[in-house]
Design brief:
Blueprint lengths: L1 H26 L16 H11 L5 H13 L15 H36 L4 H15 L2 H14 L16 H27 L2 H8 L4 H18 L2 H10 L2 H6 L8 H7 L3 H29 L13
Length: about 325
């Protein structure tokens, strides 16, 4: 297991290096306006002078080396247009905790409701609870998220009297955004757990246990659920990352000052430095999520080992 993690981490660093290098080079092909907050008021001579000061006229390998050297010292650069002159680390320090908190709460709720939903649908397969759960999953999967986000906002504020605008100090303002972010994962966990549990229920060892008179509830809890949840656990860290990164629309609906909409705003304003930093952060989070997913699988099922090629179980 240790050697596997080391190999995955090394491959992850290579992947991250390639992604950041490609993004860095592509952003250098963008117009130079993205590096100045007052570009319209500058003369060509002033623009050229500032480009030389920023080192943007140096050869590309030199710029890339300087970027990685600054990165190793924890320097992501300064914003040029979004908040001119402010360090990107300072900007993110205000936004990351909010997005992480909302993502964590929504993930906990998704697991607390999605897993019992899948178990309930499996236990009452073909009956009313299963049909209701299936209808819920179909609606959430088929209807665009934007649609039910708007319904939640409209009826949550009008019928339940919940606040519309987000406030860090008012816990009531967390309800609608967290509920909106949780719905997709609830349906996802419920759908796949039901599928895995149904597949597990049709295996020979379960049929043999039933024939021997093993208690069905005990069999469901100790064998079927435990084996069915293993492949699902692998995607928990990734779903958390996707929730944090993909909360752009929810954060804009409730005026949440998180990092969900920051990338879109910076692309629109052509703040290349922040775009570069956010791509790096999102790539790193995605890679970490994949590694953590594999590690979680080994904790849930000790029979899984990655020491051999392809793993064994």
């Amino acid at each position: 297991m240790g050697s596997y993690i080391v190999k995955r981490v090394l491959r992850s660093f290579i992947t991250l290096f390639l992604v950041c290098t490609i993004v860095f080079c592509l952003l250098r092909l963008m117009p130079v306006e993205g590096y100045f907050s007052n570009f319209d008021k500058m003369t060509p001579e002033q623009v050229q002078h500032q480009l030389e000061i920023k080192g943007l006229t140096d050869p590309l390998p030199t710029q890339l080396g300087r970027f990685y050297n600054n990165l190793l010292h924890g320097d992501l650069g300064n914003s040029s247009r979004y908040r001119p002159g402010i360090a990107i680390t300072e900007i993110l320090a205000d936004k990351v905790p909010i997005s992480m908190l909302l993502g964590t709460i929504s993930l906990v709720i998704s697991l607390a409701l999605g897993l019992p939903l899948g178990r309930l649908m499996t236990r009452y397969k073909g009956r009313i609870p299963d049909h209701i759960g299936t209808a819920f999953i179909v609606v959430i999967q088929a209807v665009p998220a934007v649609v039910y986000y708007l319904f939640i906002q409209m009826y949550g504020t009008s019928l339940m009297g919940l606040p519309l605008l987000f406030s860090r100090d008012n816990l009531a303002t967390y309800i609608l955004p967290v509920f909106s972010l949780s719905l997709g994962n609830i349906a996802y966990y419920g759908m796949w757990l039901r599928r895995y549990m149904v597949d597990e229920s049709n295996k020979d060892y379960v049929k043999l246990a039933v024939a021997k008179g093993v208690n069905s509830k005990e069999l469901m809890r100790k064998q079927i659920f435990r084996n069915a949840v293993v492949p699902l656990v692998q995607y928990i860290p990734t779903s958390f990352v996707l929730t944090v990164v993909g909360s752009i629309y929810v954060e804009s609906l409730y005026s949440i000052p998180g990092m969900g909409g920051l990338l879109v705003k910076c692309i629109q304003s052509q703040d290349n430095t922040i775009v570069q930093a956010l791509v790096l952060i999102y790539s790193a989070l995605s890679i970490i999520g994949l590694i953590l997913g594999d590690i979680l699988m080994t904790f849930v099922d000790p029979r899984i080992t990655f020491g051999k090629k392809g793993g064994s179980r």
